[in-house]
Structure formats: C-alpha cells, structure tokens
Amino acid sequence: MMEIKQTAMAGTLESSDIQITLTPIAGATEIHLDSSVGKQFGEQIKQVITETLASYKVEHVRVDAVDRGALDCTIQARTQTVIQRGLDQVDQVNWEVL
C-alpha cells in the first residue's frame, strides 16, 4: 500500500477536463464527484478513479473531483498525476502501474 503524504491537486475547471484533489484520511476511501454529466457518466468516472487508485495501491484518501466532461483517459491521467503529487514522487513516476 502506498501512503499519500500530502494533499495534492491536478487538473483544471476548463471544459473537457477534471480537477481532482486527493487528501489523506484515516478511514476508508471516499469519492465525492461534482460533474456536469454526473447523471449519465458519474459511475463510470468513479470507476476510472477507483481503478487508478487501486493500480497504485492507494487507500485511505478523500477524492474530490470536479468534472467538466473529461474523457476516461483524461480522468486516468489526472488521477495518476494527483497520486504522484500526493506521494511527493513527481520526479519518480511509476510508469509500470499504467
């Protein structure tokens, strides 16, 4: 399991993007989603975030995601970036989990 050391953010609030904030917490992982397309794609967005967290073995975090219609590949990339920032490993990207 990888431990998130600090709160981190990735992404923007521009159209077709997603802004993700990752905060370490003591309890189980929580995902809070604010999305302009949440009714249609909310579960898919959460699934992409959950799978990306699992690939890095990240647990015990609060994920705040503000989606503006991002594609799955963008959601995954933003989640990977915020994980790397939260782990304080931005210079040592673990490409093998991709």
Automatic annotation (TrEMBL):
Subcellular location: Cytoplasm
Primary site of residence: cytoplasm
Single GO molecular function: lyase activity
UniProt entry keywords in alphabetical sequence: Cytoplasm, Lyase, Phosphoprotein
Modification type O-(phosphoribosyl dephospho-coenzyme A)serine: residues: 15
Pfam (any one): ACP
Cellular component terms per the entry's GO annotation: cytoplasm
Domain of life, source organism: Bacteria
Role: Covalent carrier of the coenzyme of citrate lyase.
Known partners and oligomeric status: Oligomer with a subunit composition of (alpha,beta,gamma)6.
Similarity section: Belongs to the CitD family.
UniProt protein name: Citrate lyase acyl carrier protein
